[in-house]
Amino acid sequence: MPDCTRLSKSIWPKPSNVSQRSWRSAGRSSDRNPIGSRVSPSSAKSEQRVRDILDAAKDDPSSRIGTAYASFLDDAGVEAKGLTPIAPWLNQIRGLKSRAGYAALEGEAARNGVTGLFAGFVTQDDRNTDAYITALGQAGLGMPDRDMYLLSEPHMVELKAAYLDHLTKMLTLAGETNAAARG
Questions:
Q1: Nearest partner of 26 among 136, 115, 126, 120, judged by Cα
Q2: What is the pLDDT of residues 42-75, one digit of tens each?
């Protein structure tokens, strides 16, 4: 969940001891918040201060972060604009004719902060928590587990059908023709 979404919904990440990374991701914490991290009193106080700063900044027209935060919270403005702000990008995607064109588009997307099939990032080394490493990750499947696509159990079939329905709706909202066939 992007930080602005967490912020707007008052769901703030609660950082834990970085050396407990594997433990945390395994989900064994008993004092979990809605997004699954441990809570510390000092980080809660810091997060409240950040929230207070952003809430004050959103009303200051000369504050860049305040303007960004206020525009993120402006649901009516977002709905009114619809897809207009990303229409040029969608048209570039629709206009792709080759793999080389896709590679160029992926590079442009990365420069604009949009991830594609692969993403590079810096993260803490799982084997040496005192060091940071460069990592390369691939984009995942839309559903959380590969088996959701492959298993024929009734529940998995229902999940896949619901997911395909969701994709069809998203493609339709994005202005795609024949969305059902593309989902």
A1: 126
A2: 788 888 998 899 999 998 989 999 999 998 889 9
